[in-house]
Specification:
12 helices, single chain, mainly alpha
Length: 241
């Protein structure tokens, strides 16, 4: 059985680190989408228009859009363009029916199996450039003081970059499903109630420790920090009952 051209493209993207110009386009568009300059279900400007606006080649825009689709922020429709699927409120319909049917306890069970091994593989495979990019996300996380949803979105990006750091396209695809499940309404509501500035500060310290362990290639320490983050989420779930 042969892979479809689109599947092959996404596999290749998951295995490769985007260049500086492509990452600039990814970061610019993802920031605009997160800031709701482009609303949920809104069509993005054409590749040609984005190319002109950002001063880059159309193939650069096309590659960046492929990455954004892989991350679940947009959905590309042949002949129609690219449409925003990112919802800052976390209450949009899941891209996957499995994610829509996944409850909080099932999600936590899967994360407990998945994330410690994911960070172990990432430490083995991540390039210095990928670790630098992870550091940039951490800096943005540490700048958040009270905006729970903004912190959650950055947290998702932090974890997604760890997944991409494994160099395993199947793992990346699976983790995108985990993120889709994490975005369901129960989690957004939970964080609005419980992710106070003090708790954000606690998470920030934990993620700082996790990053330092990743940068030091310390697998044991990193997996321990990942497990502690899962415990914090479990506490929030128990408080929400």
């Amino acid at each position: 059985m042969t892979n479809s051209p689109k599947a092959s493209t996404l596999t290749g993207l998951a295995q490769s680190l985007p260049g500086a110009t492509v990452r600039y386009v990814i970061d610019t568009l993802s920031t605009r989408i997160a800031a709701q300059e482009f609303a949920l279900d809104e069509r993005l400007p054409s590749e040609r228009q984005l190319s002109q606006d950002l001063g880059v080649a159309r193939n650069t825009v096309r590659e960046a859009l492929d990455h954004l689709e892989l991350r679940g922020m947009i959905r590309r429709r042949a002949g129609s363009g690219s449409f925003v699927t990112f919802n800052p409120g976390g209450s949009s319909q899941a891209l996957s029916s499995v994610a829509a049917e996944t409850g909080p306890l099932h999600l936590q069970a899967v994360r407990g199996i998945f994330e410690p091994e994911m960070v172990r593989l990432a430490i083995i495979s991540m390039s210095p450039k990928q670790i630098d990019a992870l550091s940039e996300i951490l800096s943005k996380m540490e700048a958040v003081q009270a905006d729970a949803l903004a912190f959650v979105r950055l947290e998702e990006e932090f974890h997604r970059m760890i997944a991409e750091g494994t160099g395993n396209p199947l793992l990346v695809a699976c983790y995108n499903l985990v993120i889709d499940a994490r975005r369901q309404a129960f989690r957004a509501a939970m964080y609005r109630r419980h992710l106070t500035p003090a708790r954000i500060a606690t998470y920030q310290r934990g993620y700082n420790g996790l990053f330092n362990a990743i940068a030091a290639r310390d697998i044991e320490e990193a997996t321990e920090f990942m497990k502690l983050a899962l415990i914090e989420d479990q506490k929030l779930l128990l408080q929400d009952e």
